Amino acid sequence: MNIFLNIIWVVFGGAAIAIEYVLSSVAMMVTIVGIPFGLQSLKLAALAMWPFGTDINSLNTGWPSGCLAGVMNIIWWFVGGFPIALTHLFFGLLFCITIVGIPFGLQHFKLMRLALFPFGKSLN
Fold first, then answer.
1. 78 CA to centre of own chain
2. Measured distance CA(69)–CA(87) in Å, rounded
3. Which of 2, 5, 3 is nearest to 100 (CA)?
4. Mean pLDDT of the chain
C-alpha cells in the first residue's frame, strides 16, 4: 500500500517538492557555511520524494548532536524553516478536508515536523 501511495504522491506533486528542495540545497551549498543547511535540505528532499513508510527518528549520536544541533535548528528556523513549515501546514490542512486526502495531509504534517527542526533527526 505504501508503494501505491508513494507513486500517487510523486505524480501529484511530490516530485516538484523534492526538486525544489534539491535546488535550494544546491544554492545553500555554494558557501562553506551553508553546507550543513544544504544537507538538511537534501534530507527534506528525500522525505518529500518517498514519504509513505519513512519514519523520522531523533539521533542520539553523530554530528550534529546535542547543543550544536539545537543552535543549528534555531538558525535554520529563522532562515527558512518556519516558512517551509507553514507551507506544509497549509497543504496538510487542505488535503485533510477530504477523506481521500487525509493520508497525504498526514505526510505534509510529517514534512512540517522535519522542516521545523531537521538537525539531529534521521530518516528510516
1. 16
2. 23
3. 5
4. 89
| pLDDT tens, position by position, 54-67 | 988 887 655 556 77
- Sequence-distant (≥ 6) Cβ neighbours of residue 120 within 8 angstroms: 58, 59, 64, 65, 69, 70, 73
Residue 56 β-bridge partners: 123
Q: Give the three cell numbers for residue 49.
A: 520524494
Whether the CB-CB separation of 33 and 43 falls below 8 Å is answered with no
Residue 49 has pLDDT above 80, yes or no: yes
* Residue count of the chain: 124
- Give the span between the Cα atoms of 84 and 29, in whole angstroms: 18
